[in-house]
Write a structure and sequence with these properties.
GO biological process, one term: nitrate assimilation
Order of helices and strands: HHHHHHHHHHHHHHHHHHHHEEHHH
CATH superfamily of the largest domain: MFS general substrate transporter like domains
GO molecular function, one term: nitrate transmembrane transporter activity
CATH architecture of the largest domain: Up-down Bundle
Distance between the termini: 52 Å
Number of domains: 2
Helix content: 55-70%
Number of helices: 23
Membrane topology: Multi-pass membrane protein
CATH class of the largest domain: Mainly Alpha
Radius of gyration: 23 Å
Keywords: Membrane, Nitrate assimilation, Transmembrane, Transmembrane helix
InterPro entries: MFS, MFS_dom, MFS_trans_sf, NO3_transporter
Strand content: under 5%
Amino acid sequence: MENSQTESNRENNGGFSSPVDSEHKATKLRIQSVAAPHMRAFHLSWISFFACFVSTFAAPPLIPLIRDNLDLTSTDIGNAGVAAVSGAVFARIVMGTLCDLFGPRVASAALMLLTTPAVYCSALANSPASFLLVRFFTGFSLSTFVSTQYWMSSMFSAPVVGTANGVAAGWGNLGGGATQLIMPYVFTLIHHIGATKFTAWRIAFFVPAVFQTLSAYSVFFLGQDLPDGDFAKLQKSGDKHKDKFSQVFYQAITNYRGWILALTYGYCFGVELTVDNIIAQYFYDRFHVNLHTAGIIAASFGLANLFSRPLGGYVSDVMATRYGMRGRLWTLFLVQILGGCLCVLLGRLGSLSTSVTVMLVFSVFVQASCGLTYGVVPFVSRRSLGVISGLIGGGGNVGAVLTQVVFFRGSRFKTETGITLMGVTIICCTLPMMFIYFPQWGGLFWGPSSKGITEENYYMSEWSKEEQEQGFHKASLKFANNSKGERGKRVASAPTPLEGTPESYGHV
C-alpha cells in the first residue's frame, strides 16, 4: 500500500519524490528523506561542508599543545588563524564562477580533493611557517560553502529556499563546533594508547583528512547538479544554455546589492569564523579552565548552528510569506544589530558563567544572521547566482581576516577588548543594509517602485535582446514567476507586464 502511494505521489510530482514548481525545484524540505535528487543533494551538501569545517578548525582546540611543540608565539598563532580564513576569500568567488559554468557537484568534489593533502600534511608541520601554510591551504576548503548554497538554491523553490540554505549551511558550520570536541578526544585516545603528546596531536589530523576525502567522493558519485540532471549532460543535450563567463561575471559585479550583502555578511559569518579561531584559547587563558573545558565551551558556540542558522533561514521564509522581501531584509537588519550589541557585552564581562551564557545567546543571533542573509541572496541574481553567492561568501572571509588582523593578532589589544570592538564593528557594518532596494519589492524604508517594475523586468534585465531572441532567458523567466511570493500579501495585486514578457531592459 505504501509503495503504491509513493508511486502515485511521484506521478503527481512529475516523477520526483517531492512536490516541485515549474523549474522542478522542491517546494518542501523533507529532512528525513534521502531521495534523489533534491534531498540527496541536501544531505551531501551539508555533510561535505561539515567535513571541511572540521578540517579547517581542527587545529584551534589543540593550539596549547601545538604552541608548545612548535614554539609558536601569539603572533604566529594569530597569523595562522588569519591564514586559515584568508585563502577562501578569492576562492569563494572562483567557486561561484565554477558553479555557474560547471555545476556544484564537480566544483565541490574537486575542491575538497585538492585541499585534502594539506589536512594530511598538518601532521608534518615542524615550524611556525609550515603550520601557517597548512592552515592556509586547508582553509580553501571552506569555499564549499558556495557550492552548498548554490546547490540548495538550484534544488529548492522560493518558499523554502531560505530554510534549505539555512539548514544546509548551519549543519555544515556545525563542524566548527564539533571539531572543538572531536579533536581533543581523538588526541586523548591516541595519547592513552601510547603515543607521546607531541606525536598524538599529529596523528589526530588523519581523522578529519579521511573524513574530507570520503565526503568528496560521495558528492561526485552520488550527487546531481540540478533536478533534471547534471550540467554537462543538460548542456550537451541542449536543455541548458552554456553561459559565457564574461557575462555571468559582469552581471554579478555590477549588482550593488551583492556588494552590500558581502559587507554585512563579513560581520556575521566573518565573526563566526573569528570566534571559532579564538574562543577556546580565550577561555583557556582568561578564565584558566583546562583544555577539555575550553574545548567544550568553544564547541557550544559552533554547535548552536544545529538550530540557529536554520532558524534564521526559516524565519526569513516565514517573514517573506507575510511581508515579502521587505520582511526578509528587516529581520536580517534587526537580528544582526542585536548580535553586535551582545558581542559588545561579551567582551566586557569578567565572570566565567555569565560570559558563557552571553556567548551562547550571541551565537544564536550571529548565526541566525547568516541564515537570514542567504534567505535574500538567491533573489539578488538568477543568471549570476554562483558568482553572487561566492562574492557574498567571500565577504564573510574578508570580514574574518580583517577582524583577526586588526583586533586579535599580536598584543595590540587584549582579547576581551578585541571582542568588544568586534561588536561595535558588527553594528556599523550592518547599517548599509538601508540602501538595499529591489524595485519590484522595495527595501527597508521604501516600498516597490511606482513605475510598475515586475519580477520579469528585474530578471530579464540580465539578458540582452539577442540572448532573449535565442531563448537563453527562459530559466530566468520561470524563476521570476516563482519569485512572485516575495511580494508578500501584495501577490494578488502586484503589477504584471501590460504587453506580455518584456524583451529587453536596462539593469534595474
